[in-house]
Design brief:
The structure is a single chain. By secondary structure, the protein is of the alpha/beta class. It has helices at residues 26-35, 54-61, 79-86, 97-104, 111-118, 131-135, 137-148, 175-186, 240-251, 281-292, 339-347, 380-387, 428-460; strands at residues 12-17, 39-44, 89-95, 123-127, 153-154, 158-161, 167-171, 215-220, 225-226, 232-233, 255-260, 274-277, 303-306, 313-315, 333-335, 366-373, 391-396, 408-409, 411-415, 418-422, 426-427. The chain starts with 11 loop residues before the first strand and ends with a helix. The strands form 6 sheets. An 8-stranded mixed beta sheet has the order 12-11-8-13-16-17-19-20, with helices on both faces. The protein is built from 13 helices and 21 strands.
Length: 461
Amino acid sequence: MRREPGRLEGRLIAVGVTGSIAAYKAPELVRLLQAEGADVVALLSPSATRFVAPLTLEALTRHPAESDVLALLPDGRIGHIVVAETADAVVVAPATAHWLGAMASGLAGDVVTATCLATTAPVVAAPAMDGEMYAHPATTANVRRLREDFGYRIVAPETGALASGRSGVGRLAALPTIVDAVVAAVGDGPVRAPDAPARPPEAIMPREADLTGRHLVITAGGTSEAIDPVRSITNRSTGKMGIAVAQAALDRGARVTLVVANVRVPLPEGVRAAVVPAESAGRMRAALLEALTDQPGQAGFDALVMAAAVSDFRPARPAETKLARADSLTLELEPTPDILAEVSRIARGMDADGRETRRPLEPRPVLVGFAAETGSLARAPEKLERKGLDLLVANDVGAADSGFGTDTNRVTVYRADGRPESWPLLTKREVADRLLDLVAGLLDARDAAAHTGLLTQESRT
């Protein structure tokens, strides 16, 4: 059955949570807003984090839960400012007496007040507190100022049992009533930020340590090929994608060997990976061939993720001394070796002509390649097959949001055992996590098949 679009379809709604016992209802409010089609992001005051865990709201919203007014997003933007500039509405529920007073006075001591001060979007506030607190003249004056001077929509609290054990006016309004107020506040105006990159990024949710005990070799950066001792030809790779894969693998418990060419980003936090410098294609080839076998016939790693941008050509005869400046310079270029194809052949027990001349390496490593294309990905399936890969990640580096040096990537993943998957625009860390989901699955399937084969062999003897 086709779902009818919700009243908040395509909208970004910020849910501000402050330190009332009614904060436990925030996850359900998020769910109701999502049921109306909204994309939701959560803001928590420091005291609110004692009632509801930020991780709970991150898991529900798939966005970082903002709780520190000084915090930056992974891409360097100021979290609450991004929310203020892109949200179609901010709803503060529950809104405590303290928050009402701070907001009425323009004090930005937490991300909820700071976001409301910084936004031009409509604000909805749903107070919740003890009855005497809500009836106090100070609270009444603050509510009146927010409504009349600031134009905020106030969803009045209801009468009922309160946390103090008393009964009175101060109970958080029914959640559907709050949702209705948000819908009315948004109205029929255009979506403020329809493009996902402008909005808060997706949260990086913790993955299981499903790569514990695995050894992954990951390459990153762009290689450089010498023209003379001071000049070289290279490419525009910054290494962001490879470093993101390495960090994600480390976070999932893997032992990582990071083979790095020229990178312009920091290495993984804590530098817990074994780092092997490999500036040129030749050095990278040597590093990977050395890592490929542990003992004769035994693979030296479980998976190789070839995220480096290896130069396709190099000067045929680099000069031993610096070339003098001249009106022109002609370089003769020769192709560099296809490192990943060579690794694949050796892993499968094949020679340079593709003949099976030895036993494949055991256990067979999972091989992942990257293909940087421009304009079309039509060559990707042929590359996957020719190189003998398990996975090939292809992207159009000519696109503004997925080229070299960007924080985001839009990729299509080609699989040897299935149909290609086109992923939406994601941060490079998100691409890394999704890619490692596939790698972990392939490794588990490999080991399960080997175990089944061993049991079958034992049953025959």
